[in-house]
Specification:
heterodimer, A: alpha+beta, five-stranded antiparallel beta sheet, globular, B: about 160 residues, mainly alpha, Helicase, Ruva Protein, domain 3, 6 helices
Chain lengths: ~650, ~160
């Protein structure tokens, strides 16, 4: 009975989504106020129904209802409750439901924070987002119903994939989807603007905070995924250029281009078409990512939830939204470039190059990800495109980005004098070069060129960002007051750019200076490695709720001083009979020590891998800075102002102040 | 009871099924570096998407051993790669070789980059061309233009 309730709620949500699509868009087209005003309540009602459906699925997992096929396939009575909860989105059907829930959540958020949007515009945004909902709900109901019953009812479930039984997997997918799906808001705004032909800078201003927010979530989502892979897959890698990682990275790259292009469109009324295209592109890539992950066309470490037949449906969906929106773009995008003018030396130019470089980076990742598929389809044979390829082509494209950030942060809007810019930049450049060189030579003794290049690039970004902040204070009497009057958007940008630099440092040093050793160790053995002594204290059997394991206790000392005891386990998850490695990690800002238990050898000895990874934490620390920067910028005063002032005056049915 | 027994049997099978993950030893650090660089770029064929270096699978272990022996025997990287490609095809290489089938893969990114720069330069030129068009207006025209523009924005707002 209860699963049917969830199913029924899902059908009602679809009904709401259909109404949410048709009436507001039709109403906006022929000026029917009543139809348009349906947008808000219906979107919220859809959220209510889809939440009920989601809550039901959670309930079914928590109560071990194995009469439901999806629960039986992805849970087990021995599975700890917290993983029964996260198992809800551990496989195909549930992750689609999560997708739809989050889409509905974003839509509902738009209905609440849209008081200053004109009625017809909001109706179109909600309508477009409703259309996306319709697509996903139909997909779920027709091909991937999470509430399908199983008969006969199995005695127990076949357990959640052990890879996913991890705290990181509780928050990684929701964060990632918040980002992915968040771009649907920018998409909705872009399509609404095209439909209505109102592509002015206020469109950019409305859309920008949503995009920043989605981008911040996506940044955190990707960083969480990288961190999870690092400690859970058991060999200390933090990025594999795996197709599924690429699928989430591509929307991020375009999202980054988009938030920068928005800056120019909002402030200077330029690149409007370009921004629209990027917004469409960001969402298209989110859909493409879903297709790649869910269809099973790619072989990847993430291929735990795939089914080729469903791919066709998503492909049709993808074709409809991408094809439809590009057609609309071709028909409706303004052909004349109206708007602000700018000279070659201006911030506009640098923002343009930024978005182009990120677009090229995205196309490169796309090419590398899809090339094996295309080559095979064209009968050119099977080939693999992996990390060596991506590192070889991606790094040269991203290097100019670091250089451009520095100039872009300092150069003025509209037009600037290259002599002035040069004066401000030359000492910063020299300082980055000298300090970077000294740091590289002092602390590292191999791979010097790459290390120094990375540190110099990062220092350049940091110094120019701080210099831009300083020049804002230069002619102010009271520096403290001046600091407070600088908008949050500016602080957000500075923080995100510094975060980018921190990530560059992390990537550079970890990639160039990580060392590892593969050892045969029996209890009592001591290995000296990377300035530390590792002694295997004990190997002992342990038992978890749904696994058996061998645990190694490794004592780490440095110059006779005790540093830490690391515990690494080799687990066998009993239901699926699947081995998993739990790494033992001691982390600090400057280095991680990582112990991973391998396989049993003879005479009570095991193979053990020891890793020393300097600065690896900086990769994710930088991502946190970037996300916080995005968050700061999204809450800039100028986006909140109108909303707050409207709170005091009761606004019925979303009547709008048009003063913006 | 039977279930538990079965699990224990399966577990022991699973453990014995693993080829010994014996650490390799090198007397020559140069050989060691080459070995690790090689296994890092060779795909484990039975895994989803893992290099030999990262994989725990039996086949990966066998291939690692084979590569280890070859490195010790003094074979060059190219010889080892050729051997692997002859046996398994290009699929085994994570760094696809440059052939007529892969030139687009390798040069594509730089074609994109050139195209991007071209588009950017065109946009910037277009922008400055519009600027010239505006400066050619005389004062009254400019005034009229401003009026028209204001009218336009007013209408949009209304």
């Amino acid at each position: 009975m209860i699963p049917e309730l969830g199913h029924f709620a899902l059908i009602l949500a679809l009904a709401m989504a259909i109404i949410q699509t048709i009436f507001p868009i039709a109403g906006a087209a022929n000026g029917n106020q009543a139809w348009m005003s349906l947008a808000r309540p219906v979107a919220r009602l859809q959220f209510v129904f889809i939440s009920i459906s989601f809550a039901v699925l959670i309930y079914l997992f928590l109560t071990n209802d194995f009469s439901v096929a999806y629960v039986a396939q992805n849970s087990n009575s021995l599975l700890p409750a917290i993983y029964r909860f996260s198992a809800v989105w551990g496989a195909h059907e549930g992750s689609l439901l999560l997708w739809a829930v989050i889409l509905s959540l974003w839509t509902t958020a738009v209905t609440f924070y849209s008081k200053r949007l004109p009625n017809f515009f909001l109706a179109r945004v909600i309508g477009v987002m409703g259309a996306v909902s319709v697509g996903f709900l139909l997909f779920m109901l027709l091909t991937s119903n999470p509430f399908e019953r199983l008969f006969p009812v199995p005695a127990d479930g076949s357990d959640l994939n052990p890879l996913l039984q991890d705290p990181g997997l509780i928050i990684h997918p929701p964060m990632l989807y918040m980002g992915y799906v968040g771009f649907s808001v920018a998409f909705g705004f872009a399509i609404a603007a095209l439909l209505g032909g109102n592509l002015d800078s206020s469109w950019a201003r409305w859309s920008r905070p949503w995009t920043l927010l989605a981008w911040a979530f996506l940044t955190i989502g990707i960083a969480l995924g990288s961190w999870w892979a690092y400690y859970e897959l058991g060999w200390g890698g933090w990025w594999f250029w795996d197709p599924v990682e690429n699928a989430s990275f591509m929307p991020w790259l375009i999202g980054t281009a988009l938030i920068h292009s928005f800056a120019a469109t909002e402030k200077r009324d330029v690149f409007k078409n370009w921004t629209i295209l990027l917004a469409i592109c960001a969402f298209a890539l989110s859909l493409l990512g879903t297709f790649l992950v869910r269809s099973g066309v790619l072989t990847s470490v993430h291929a735990f939830a795939t089914d080729p037949e469903r791919g066709v449906f998503i492909l049709v969906l993808l074709g409809f939204f991408v094809g439809g929106s590009l057609l609309l773009y071709a028909l409706r995008a303004p052909s004349t470039v109206k708007g602000g003018q700018f000279k070659l030396i201006s911030r506009e130019t640098f923002l343009l190059f930024n978005s182009i470089l990120f677009l090229v980076a995205m196309l490169t990742v796309l090419l590398g990800t899809l090339y094996p598929l295309i080559a095979e389809a064209l009968g050119m044979g099977k080939l693999s495109v992996g990390a060596p390829y991506f590192n070889a082509v991606f790094i040269p494209i991203m290097t100019p980005v670091a250089l451009l950030i520095g100039i872009g942060a300092i150069v003025r809007w509209k037009q600037d004098d290259y002599i002035r810019v040069g004066k401000q930049l030359r000492y910063l450049f020299l300082a980055s070069l000298v300090v970077g060189g000294i740091l590289g030579i002092t602390f590292f003794d191999n791979h010097l060129f790459r290390t120094i290049a990375g540190i110099v690039a990062a220092l350049w970004v940091i110094l120019t960002s701080l210099s831009a902040l300083m020049s804002r204070l230069k002619h102010r009497q009271n520096k403290l007051v001046a600091l407070q009057t600088i908008p949050r958007g500016f602080y957000g940008m500075t923080l995100a750019h510094i975060g980018f630099a921190v990530t560059i440092i992390g990537i550079t040093i970890t990639s160039q200076h990580s060392v590892d050793v593969h050892q045969r160790m029996a209890p009592g053995d001591v290995v000296a490695f990377a300035d530390y002594q590792f002694s295997l204290e004990a190997l002992r059997p342990t038992i978890g709720p749904n696994f058996k394991a061998t645990e190694a206790v490794v004592k780490v000392t440095k110059n006779g001083k005790h540093v830490t005891d690391l515990h690494s386990q080799k687990r066998i998850y009993t239901v699926r009979n699947m081995p998993m490695t739990e790494a033992g990690i001691d982390s600090s800002l400057m280095r991680d020590i990582y112990v991973s238990l391998g396989e049993p050898l003879d005479d009570n000895a095991w193979s053990i891998r020891l890793y020393h990874k300097p600065f690896v934490r900086w990769i994710w620390l930088g991502a946190i800075f970037m996300a916080l920067g995005g968050l700061l910028a999204a809450t800039d005063r100028r986006y909140r102002l109108k909303v707050e002032s409207n709170k005091t005056a009761p606004v019925e049915g979303g009547a709008v102040s048009l003063k913006s | 009871m039977i279930k538990t027994a079965l699990i224990i049997v399966l577990m022991s099978l699973n453990f014995t099924a693993y080829a010994a993950d014996n650490p390799v030893e090198f007397s020559n650090p140069e050989l060691q570096e080459r070995y690790y660089a090689l296994i890092d770029e060779i795909r484990c064929l039975v895994c989803q998407n893992q290099s030999l270096a990262d994989s725990h699978a039996d086949l990966a272990q066998d291939l690692r051993n084979e590569i280890y022996q070859k490195v010790l025997a003094g074979e060059k990287d190219e010889q080892i790669v050729t051997f692997l490609v002859e046996r398994y095809g290009d699929f085994v290489l994570y760094r696809p070789p440059l052939t007529k089938n892969t030139w687009l893969l390798w040069f594509g990114p730089f074609l994109f980059l050139l195209l991007g720069i071209y588009v950017a330069i065109r946009l910037i030129k277009k922008q400055s061309a519009e600027k010239n068009a505006f400066t050619e207006l005389d004062e009254t025209q400019q005034k009229r233009l401003t009026e028209l523009l204001n009218e336009d924005t007013d209408r949009n707002k209304g």
